[in-house]
Design goal:
Blueprint (H helix, E strand, L loop, with lengths): L9 H10 L6 H12 L4 H12 L3 H11 L7 H13 L2 H8 L1
Helix pairs in contact: 1-3, 1-5, 2-5, 3-4
Protein name: DUF3349 domain-containing protein
Pfam families: DUF3349
InterPro entries: DUF3349 (IPR021784), DUF3349_helical (IPR044918)
Length: 98
């Protein structure tokens, strides 16, 4: 199945794919959402993570809301995900999103 990624989300898709080449593991899923939350709109974040995980967009969007309200991941878990993204150009990506 061919996945079509909007051009403005392509760099985010590549960043996530680089950091998680075998897919986003359960323990990294919510921390990833929490880390990227401040840098992206809720809908764009849900859209790109939906593409990366195969989860339905609406479920991911609910998870986005959950990580900033009722189920905030621990700082250590978020930092672990950040370290994976840093190796794949996270700082460059941050500059693109400014």
């Amino acid at each position: 199945m061919q996945i079509t990624i909007a051009p403005y989300l392509l760099s985010t898709y590549k960043l996530i794919q680089c950091a998680f080449p075998n897919g986003i593991e359960t323990q990294d899923y919510l921390p990833l959402l929490a880390l990227l939350y401040d840098e992206m709109s809720d809908r764009n974040l849900a859209e790109i993570v939906s593409h990366c995980t195969g989860r339905h967009y609406n479920l991911v969007l609910n998870d986005v809301y959950r990580v900033v309200t009722t189920d905030v991941p621990k700082a250590e878990a978020i930092d672990k995900v950040k370290q994976r993204l840093l190796v794949c150009g996270y700082e460059k990506w941050l500059k693109e999103t400014e």
